[in-house]
Amino acid sequence: MDLRSLPYPPGTSFGGVGGSGCKDIRRHLRRNNKQITDLSDFEDFLLDGSHSGGGVFAELIRQLSSPTHSPLSPSIVFTHGDLRPDNIVVDMGNGSEWIVTGLLDWEYSGFYPEYYEAVKCTNCLAPYEENDWFLYLPDCVSPKNYAHWWLLDRVRETWFI
């Protein structure tokens, strides 16, 4: 079964299914301190931090975001939250075919906007990166399919520097 097809119960909190809430780990682990049940609240969570000031930057990011209450808003899907080669178990199939047989490390999994897996699985991607793994991500988690949201998050990342 495709993990992203697990049904999101509307009105329930984003994040871990056990009630652990949303987690954002950029420089350190942050958890939401209030219930998040829509995309607008989630975007606010990503911008809220322990920073003082920066209101103009945060407001500009909010204005650049796509409308959060429209038919074009991203769906809420179940995500692994930490897709990277170390967490993917593969087995050599027939010949040179590799078969994914498991995923490890589920502590960041939960219900998030569909673009968020593309953001999370490229958190380690830097301009000087030589690991071509990032070029072969499946379409469902590829930044190519969520370019606007992915680029916006890269700008948001400067908020945490």
Automatic annotation (TrEMBL):
Pfam families in the cross-refs: APH
Keyword hit for Protein biosynthesis: no
UniProt-recorded Gene Ontology molecular function terms: transferase activity
Record domain Aminoglycoside phosphotransferase: where: 56-122
UniProt KW keywords: Transferase
Domain of life: Eukaryota
PANTHER family: AMINOGLYCOSIDE PHOSPHOTRANSFERASE DOMAIN-CONTAINING PROTEIN, AMINOGLYCOSIDE PHOSPHOTRANSFERASE-RELATED-RELATED
Protein name: Phosphotransferase enzyme family
Organism (species): Aspergillus sclerotialis
